[in-house]
Each structure stands twice: as structure tokens, then as C-alpha cells.
Amino acid sequence: MNSQKKIQLEPNRILMLNKIIKVVIAVSLFFSIIFFIGLDKHHFYYSYLFSFSVFTTISLGAMFFVILQFLTRAGWSVVVRRVPEYLMSNIGIMFILFIPILFGIHDLYHWSHLDEVASDYILKGKSPYLNTSFFIVRGIIFFCVWIIISKLFFGKSELQDYDSDHGHTALLQRCSPVAMILYGLTLTFAFIDWIMSLTPHWYSTIFGVYIFSGGLVGFLALNSIIYIILYKKGILSHIITIEHFHDLGKLLYGFNIFWTYIAFCQYFLIWYANIPEETVWFLDHFAGNWNTVAIVLSVGHFGIPFVLFMSRHAKRHLGFHFGMAIWLLLMHILDLYWIIMPTVSPKGIHISFTDISTFLFIGGVYCYFFLRQLSKGYLIPINDPRLKESETFENQ
After folding, report:
1. 0.85 exceeded by pTM
2. Residues of the chain whose pLDDT is less than 70?
3. Displacement of CA 353 from its chain's centroid (Å)
């Protein structure tokens, strides 16, 4: 099998798509500014946080996948590792998009209001950690760690394409245990800060794992979507096989079950203990028609894929795999909307134009930089020492 053919996208393949994305970015930015100035600034920041969280969790899911391949010294995944590397490298863009959240701290987080802290003994007790200055410092630290990991793993993988030095792979294998530990710690505390502290009286010891598992499902779904499109377009059909899609499907299915397990554990333990400061979060998220959203997530995020995507045939049938990947990506987006938005819309789900415009803006920026990377670099790590193993991989 000749891996040297069609390993780069022709720029004109995505030129029109990039032009469309630029228009979407410009229009959505215009309306986002209008909604921010003329309508509800308070709601705008929650919409922005939701959209920011969707794309940040996808990049962090990609980062976990990349680190995991080097940590386990996996051979099968080499030909499907480059897209995750590109998605992971978008974490630097998310750092820039994090800046508006810093301006919205007082609209988003009750613990940033000194008068409320002074009159609330729980917030006062948490104030050494939950305060504006430390929040900003931690956010910068989180992104610095992620950017360093991204630059190291993507930089060395890409450099190997040109100098054929297998020492880069050996270095990344040695660095992967430390990178995985730093990844786990920073992701957990980042989303404790950005999402869990929206309800500062509430806490969950597995909230970080919940966000991690959901983000990983979102990434794996998007990853399958992208590779199926590239395969159907004939760009990687001579390199990637049904065997690779079968394994990508197994990962997507398996981690979706893991998300379900974590979501159920978080709910069941809090329900069973029935402690007011813990149950308040679920009471708010089951209020009004948010309860309907919770039911949709239970059925759509777990029940439907559990039954329909279990079989070997479903994972190897690219049309069905593609449909299930789109479905699970939508479920991940809905899950984050359900987690974040009841804080600002306590009576029930209410999708506003602000939600749509901010999502299109951040999504447009995210896709634009991803497609730039995709069009400039190689679509597979052409000099990886395990490339032949990946090309000839077969499920047992």
C-alpha cells in the first residue's frame, strides 16, 4: 500500500468552504455584538460560556486521544491520529476566545460579588479559592499547560514528517505519562471553575470526570464524522480501512457508556444522600421543561446509541456510523446546554438568537483555523515508525 499518495488536501478543495465560514463569522459576530449591546448582556455571557465550553471540550478530548496513543504505544491509530492533532492544536485559539469570559465574571459567577460573599458563610469559606484574581490566574495556567502539551505533541509529530527522526516518537512516549497527569488535573479544575462554580453552593467530586467523558464523546463523534467524509471523498480511502472505523466506533460507543455511568453515579449518589446543598443543582436542572431535556439526554445520549450502535455491523457500516456520530455530537452539545443554561433560564429551555449567534461565531472561528491546518499539513504522520502496522491493521 502506497502511503505517499493523496496525503495532503488540495487548497482549492476547501477554499470555498473557508469563504463561507468567514461570512458566517462576520455575520454572527455582528449579531452577537448587537445582542450584547442592545439586549440582555447577562444572558449573552451564559450563551458565550456554553459555546466556548462545547469547542474547548472537543479540543481537550482530542488532546486526551493523542496523549493516550503515545502512552499506550498504539500502532493501529497512526493513520487516524493527525485530525485529532489538528483539533488539539486549536486550544490556542480557545485561549484567545476565553478572554470575553474574563470580562463577564461578575455576570456569570455569584462568588465574584463581594457583598454576597460577606453575607453568605458558604461563599466566604470558599473565597480563598473562588475569587476573581485567582480565577484569572488559574485560567491562564490551565491554558498554558494545554498549549505546551499541544505544541509538544503536535510539533514533534509534524517535525517527524520532515526529518524522519523516530526519536520524536520515543520522546513523546516518555513525556506522555506526565502529560496525562497534568491533563487530568487541569481539565478537572478548569471546569470546576468555569461551570460548577456557576452554582457555588453545589459541589460534585466527579464533575470533572463527567465533563471529560462528555467532551471525549463529542470529540470521538466529530473525529468519525471528519474521517468518514475524507474517506468518502476518496482522499484517504487508500490508507484508512473499515478496520480503523470499526475501532473508532468502539471507542465512541465505549466512552459513551462511560459517560452514562458517570452521569448516573453523580445523580444517584446525590439523590440517595438527599443533602439539600447537593440536591439543589438537580432541582434547578429538572425545573420546568428542563426536565424534558434531561429525559431526552437519558434516552438520546444513552438509550438510542446503546441499542443501535452496539453491533459490529453498525460500526462498520459507514453511513450508519456517520449518522450515529452526528447524533452523539448533538447530544454532547445539548448536554452542555442543559448543564449551563438553567442558571440563567430557570423556568425552562429557551434557545435565543444570542445562543445561536455566539455558537456560530465561536464554531466558525474554530472550524476556520482547523481547516487551515488541515489544508496546510499532511493528513497522516508519514514517517511514524508504526505507520506500516497501522496500514495493515485488522480487528481480531
Report:
1. yes
2. 1-6, 8, 10-11, 13, 396
3. 23
Q: How far apart are CA 136 and CA 146, in angstroms?
A: 16
Joined grid coordinates for residue 87: 483539533
- The residue with cell 455582528 is 30
HEC profile for 196-251? HHHCCCCCCCCHHHHHHHHHHHHHHHHHHHHHHHHHHCCCCCCCCCHHHHHHHHHH
Q: Which long-range contacts (CB under 8 A, 24 or more apart) does 321-324 make?
A: 321/224, 321/228, 321/245, 321/249, 322/224, 322/225, 322/228, 324/252
Q: What percent helix, strand, coil does the chain show, rounded to 5?
A: 80, 0, 20
Residue type, 178: V
Torsion of the alpha carbons at 48, 51, 53 and 56, rounded to the nearest 10: -120
All three cell numbers of 236: 484517504
**Percent of the residues in the chain that have a pLDDT greater than 70, as a whole number:** 97
pLDDT at residue 1, as a whole number: 41
Angle at 330 between CA 252 and CA 240, to 5 degrees: 40
